[in-house]
Amino acid sequence: MIRDAIRASVVAILLPMSSAMAQQMPPMPEGTGSITGHVTAADTGKPIRGALVEIVIYNNTSSRFPRVTTDAEGKFEFIKLPAGRYQIASQAARYVRLQYGQQQAGPAGLLNPPRIIELADGQAFANADFALSSFGAIEGTIVDEFGDPVPNAAVQVSQVQYAGGRRRLVPASRSAEAGPGGLTDDQGRFRVGGLTPGDYYVEALSGAFADPSAAGGFAVTFFPGTTKSASAQAVSVRPGTDATTVSFALTPAAMARVAGTLVDGSGKLLAGGNLMLMPSETTGSALMAIVRSAADANGRFIFRNVPPGIYTIQAYGAPVGSGGNLGAMAFGYQTFTVDGRDLDSLTVTVPAPRTVRGHITFDGDMALLPKKADEVFLSTRPVNFESAPIGGGPAPTTIREDWTFEISAMSGLRLITAESRQGWTMKRVTVNGRDVTDVPLDLREADVNGVEVVLTTRTSTVTGTIVDAGEKPLRDHSVVIFADDETKWTVWSRYVTFSRSGQQGTFTVKGLPAGSYLAVGVQSTTNGEWQDPDFLKKLRASGDAVRFALIDEGSATFKVIVRK
User: If you average pLDDT over residues 250-262, what whole number do you get?
Assistant: First the structure.
């Protein structure tokens, strides 16, 4: 089966509270407001009886409210609610969970935000309606070059996401109620269920990417039967409809064994270290598929039945400090080529972790100066997934009372980011006087010292309204704001941002650097495409792009139009 596929996107998923959490929440006071609505099926419009509806957020905190279920007409009602800000969600068996106001089925987050209900005393908020999409599936048959069924091939279903500076095929999220899936049966048939409506790419994998102990013999093959991700065809899953004819033949390939030794920076054998093998980014590969292994007591590791290609092994040593996630571990990587011949003497080194050391300076309203070091959030973002861990949480970070800091467990090429709850945003980063605000620090070989991070309360402000062709304000729509100069469309760029309109169609963006910009209104954006240079080029060429300029601490106000 596919092992440890790691998703690149970062989304906020609001799950139902567990009973233990709910017991810890204080009961809410009664009020005089109400929220009512209906839950229907998105494909048929028919009411869904017995759908669960719950209040997931009240005044920006999780709260203990009774859940309700819909009646035979799909109707639900919350009564005796106090005034406040609410977010509600609905779900039902065989249907995708949805928060009120989301533009599409799936997890809530920056790119797919829910709508906030502002409830006043005595207000009856009606028409809080949900149209739930049913889960879909992709099914078909995998055969070999002779047309014979291929059993026990792993089938991975992916979606395109823009992350880490490129478009990637990232393993899709699936509903837990769909159960296990992804392996072909003895007739080569497969079914991958629990999919939200959308476009997917299908990959068939054997050898190391399926069952490492089983025979291989095939390259990673994309539907409709190609080894090139650029030639893969998307499969559309629509609400209430399964894609049932996704069949294709695998491409034969010579498998190889990849084995070697894991060592630390001094060349000492590293027993028990974890390793992950994946297609290398140096080839421009879009596929995220990962195989795990571990070094034995002698530091030896092995990956069996690896198809031809260029790969990277990421290796992890002991945790740094008290952290236990991948982002807090000693890290090393090795890139190599597999051409059908066994590799038995590969050496992968996990050097001593690097450290970033520096000082934080405040330039702004000193009355807002943070009183504690933990009120400042300092981190580093990798600009690729080759020389830095593909996943994991924050690195161990220490900020002292004199505002000096250390960030441990560093590797790869990274950008520094910083902010504070009190309204401080990052103005500038220098290393020994050299401006590196938008330049990655190179932590592949050595520590980086002499970093100066300047935070400020003096920032630019952009405000606006998203309207339709008739100048009517549009709520729950998107605006993408980006520098006119495409050389600034880099990974984690400060010159590219995204916002959503509120109930009055307005939006606010703070902290953009000085420069010339464009703003384009769109109904929605998905899977990080607003960071994709190709997508930004299309927006720049659109007739509705609004051009404006910002100076340091300046402001701009305008309207952007979204046409149907």
Answer: 94
Q: Where do the structural domains in the chain lie, given as residue ranges?
A: 19-132, 136-249, 259-280+293-350, 354-456, 461-561
Strands 397-399 and 425-431: unpaired
Name the least confident of 136-145, 278-287, 350-359: 278-287
Backbone φ, ψ for residue 375 (5° rounding)? -90, -5
pLDDT at 4 (0 to 100): 36
Q: Say yes or no: domain 259-280+293-350 is CATH 3.30.460.30.
A: no
DSSP 3-state helix, strand, coil percentages of the chain (rounded to 5)?
Answer: 5, 45, 45
Residue with tokens 């990274």: 414
Contact 398, 405 (CB under 8 A): yes
Residue 275 CB partners (closer than 8 Å, separation 6+): 262, 292, 293, 294, 295, 301, 313, 314, 315, 316, 348
pLDDT score of 198:
85
CA 92/CA 69 separation, integer angstroms: 10
Query: Rounded to an integer, what distance in angstroms lies between the CA atom of residue 331 and that of residue 321?
Result: 14
The DSSP code for 141 is E
pTM above 0.85, yes or no: no
Q: Is 461-561 a domain of CATH 3.30.300.20?
A: no
pLDDT at 6: 35
Chain centroid to CA 25: how far? 29
Given a contact cutoff of 8 angstroms between Cβ atoms, the answer to whether 153 and 183 are in contact is yes
Whether the per-residue pLDDT at 22 is higher than 80: the answer is no
What is d(CA 164, CA 158) in angstroms, rounded to the nearest whole number?
Answer: 17
For residues 558 and 470, give the distance between their C-alpha atoms in angstroms, rounded to a whole number: 16
259-280+293-350: same fold as 19-132? yes
The number of beta carbons lying within 10 Å of the beta carbon of residue 332 is: 25
- At 51-91, the pLDDT tens digits run 999 998 777 666 667 889 999 999 999 999 999 889 899 98
